[in-house]
Amino acid sequence: MKVPQLKKKLEIKTCHNIDWEDNYSWIHQDNILEVLRDKSKLDPEVKKYLEDENAYSEHHLKDTKNIQKKLFDEIKARIKLDDESLPYKDHTYEYWTKTTTKGNYSIKLRKKIGSENIEEIWNGDKEKEKLKTEYFGVGDLEVSNNDKYLGYSLDLKGSEYYTIYLREIKTNKIISKEIAETSGGITFSLDDKYIFYSKLDENHRARTIYRHRIGDFEGKDELIFEEKSEAFTVGIGKSSDEKYFFINTSDHNTSEQYYFKSDELNPSPKLIIKRERGVLYSVNSWDGKFYNHTNKNAEDFKIDICDNLENQNWKTYIPAKDEVLIGGLTFLKNWIIRGETSDALDKLFVKNISTNIEEELIFSDETVYVPGVSLTQKDRNTDEVHLGYSSPKTPSRVFKYNLATKSKELVKEQEIPSGHNKDDYIVERVEFKSHDGRMVPLTITRHKKTKIDGSANVLLYGYGSYGNSMSPSFSSTRLSLINRDIIWATAHIRGGMEKGMKWWKEGKLTNKKNTFEDYIYAAKYLIEKNYTSKGKIIGMGGSAGGLLMGAVVNQSPELFLGIIMAVPFVDSLTTNLDHSLPLTVGEFDEFGNAKENKEHFDYIFSYAPYNNIKKMDYPHIFITTSLSDNRVLFDEPAKFTAKLRDYKTDNNLLLLKTEMNAGHGGKSGRDGAIEEIAIDYAFALKISNKI
Q1: Which pLDDT belongs to residue 252?
Q2: Going by C-beta distance under 8 Å and a sequence separation of 6 or more, which residues neighbour residue 228?
Q3: What does the pLDDT read at residue 364?
Q4: Is the pLDDT of residue 39 over 90?
Q5: Residues 313, 323: contact at Cβ < 8 Å?
Q6: Using the 8-state DSSP alphabet, how is residue 666 labeled?
Q7: Are 604 and 595 in contact (CB under 8 A)?
Q8: Phi and psi at residue 317, in whole multiples of 5°?
Q9: What are 451-500's pLDDT values in tens digits?
Q10: What is d(CA 116, CA 297) in angstroms, rounded to the nearest whole number?
Q11: Mean pLDDT, residues 293-308
């Protein structure tokens, strides 16, 4: 089949007196944000190229159709399709969600406490059918405090422009005007006369908080707060004791918070602590005291406490620890639960408020697992919580746990209908030395029958940006590869926060290359220790993890059999130079500001995947993207693919698949998500000769 070709239109770009060529910059339309909302505005020539690439991918994956179907069925068979969540009690009702065998979306149910009469208040599949839409993204689903109203927000394109709707549960009638172009979150006022929401500006940034009067179809919503910095985005939420609303405004690196009392008739947000570059903080209110989770003079965070916000006198409540990330707090009347992360492992601690004694909650005798806690009810005068955990080999288990008596009862276990024996799998946590001597954690999951003699393929997963840590939790989908002798390894590389804030700082800005080196050294470690061999590793990452894939494949292509990149951030220099794009300005503290800072420009230029494609052999590469993605524009993978076709000197597969009706998270619905995983895995099995 003819290889797709994107027309070249040479543009000489220039910045800081440096010129470079870009043959494909023309595909970026000036009205790109309009294109995300209305694909009919896409340049027909670009549309044809994307369709040609889709046909080319279809052709080369034709021989995987059967394995895709098999994988889809296998993955779906591990999901309990007709499942129900644990109930959560408010003052009058118990609420829970349910999924069904046939449905793709969840159903929200409730019943009055003490009654057996179950009401269905939301059915995603019915709503989607009613709207006759292909893409159906639910942003928020909130019930009012008086249990009368349902607020929900929908994105029908995948571009993350959410429209908010309010309806009366009893009659199912819409009771307010539609509120378009929001970020999706809905917060009811305590008296249920209003909702608060954040509005998106023309660059798709949430920089304003509005109050809407429920029942108003005509009036103008009231502006409560406006953020002046283009780099910051805003959100609003209630305090744990519901006495205050907190408005949070932040970029990735600096935050600021405002508050107003929940019973204020005319909300007037007041500043808590003035923003200070590099300082993150988040204040909560509980039982007459304020708790501040902050990294001020505490790199890996601490928690301070004070009695009031008018006359602040903060004292240390939970001190900082080096390379131990101190998490936030969950409050009950007699207990405070908090989390910590170190060496890519999470822990939970509970403190008895009356005795001040704190102890760790131990869940399992496994060394690698992810714990979690959730409240069972709105009334916090209780000793009971839901405690859960999972590990790479153990499906999620949730216990009803009594903090006073320490008794526990298993109330929910993730069922794998097709069967699962955790003893068939081996989970290892190792550390390897990176290029500069830093020890990097690596979680390895394999089938006990897989030989450690260099013959196995490894799927090496990585991300390493924004301080996002990769948790070693259970994934039923990965078993489809692990059961076929592919070892799954997750590299906890710098750029995440698995070893605290320092771990993030050492993997961003002009330290970004540590992220790539850590990943390459993870690959070399796996080869050296005979888990696999050179040229047998499949790299996988999405979004900023796609930037990682692009950088490492340019740097060390010989290590890899293949690379799977989802919505990859591969034209990172172009995006960084364009300050009109939704995410660019807010990410200067993550990646730098190439336009204003020559050092940043030189550094980004030196690793940006699109700018560093070389004339050499590349491994097999499978790239997926979405037409309506506003986080990583489809331009980036399209340009990257076109340029790679010009440069690569091998005959390996290079496939670009564009979802024409989806956003950054891919297709909507359960089946859509499984289909995408099945294609990725089918590609991995094809290049590993395991079909």
Answers
A1: 84
A2: none
A3: 85
A4: no
A5: no
A6: B
A7: no
A8: -110, -50
A9: 999 999 999 999 999 999 999 999 999 999 999 999 999 999 999 999 99
A10: 53
A11: 96
Q: Which residues pair with 359 in a beta bridge?
A: 350
Task: Return the DSSP state at 634.
Answer: T
**DSSP helix/strand/coil, 658:** strand
What string of DSSP letters covers 264-320?
-SS---EESS---TT--EEEEEETTEEEEEE-TT-TT-EEEEES-SSS---EEEE--
DSSP annotation of 221: P
Question: In the numeric block, which tokens belong to residue 638?
Answer: 């399209």
Which of the two residues, 208 and 661, has the higher pLDDT score?
A: 208
Mean pLDDT of 380-396: 97
CA angle (537 as vertex; 535, 543 as ends), nearest 5: 125
- Find, among 365, 489, 497, the residue nearest to 432 by Cα: 489
> What is the C-alpha to C-alpha distance for residues 76 and 574, in angstroms, rounded to an integer?
39
- DSSP H helices, 565-634, are 572-577, 588-591, 598-607
The amino acid occupying position 524 is K
The whole-number pLDDT of residue 486 equals: 98
Sequence-distant (6+) residues with CB within 8 A of 419 are none
Which is it for strands 397-402 and 93-99: parallel, antiparallel or unpaired? unpaired
Instruction: Detail the DSSP E strand segments found in 465-508.
Output: 486-491
Phi-psi map region of 167: left, alpha, beta (phi>0 left; psi -120 to 50 alpha): beta
CA atoms of 552 and 609, how far apart (whole Å): 9
Q: DSSP class of residue 612?
A: G
Question: What DSSP letter does each residue of 421-472 carry, written as one string?
Answer: -GGGEEEEEEEEE-TTS-EEEEEEEEETTS--SS-SEEEEE----TT-----
CA distances in angstroms from 264 to 150, 162, 189, 244, 245, listed in the order given: 23, 27, 10, 9, 10
Average pLDDT over all residues of the chain: 96
What is residue 152's predicted lDDT score, i.e. its pLDDT? 98
- Contact, 370 vs 396, CB < 8 A? no
What distance separates the 2 farthest-apart alpha carbons in the chain?
74
Rounded CA separation 678/473 (Å): 20
**664 confidence band (pLDDT: 50, 70, 90):** confident
Q: How far apart are the first and last CA of the chain?
A: 22
Say which amino acid occupies 305.
Answer: I
pLDDT at 55 (0 to 100): 97
Percent with pLDDT over 70 in the chain? 100
Report pLDDT digits (tens) over 597-616: 999 999 999 999 999 999 99
Q: For residues 259 and 244, is the Cβ–Cβ distance under 8 A?
A: yes
Tokens of 577: 């130079």
Q: How far is CA 418 from CA 103, 346, 475, 478, 527, in A?
A: 19, 30, 14, 14, 33
For tokens 């890899």, what's the residue?
560
Angle at which helices 670-687 and 65-77 pack, to 10 degrees? 130
**Secondary structure class of 122 (helix, strand, coil):** strand
- What is the C-alpha to C-alpha distance for residues 248 and 320, in angstroms, rounded to an integer? 23
C-alpha to C-alpha distance for 297 and 319, rounded to whole angstroms:
11
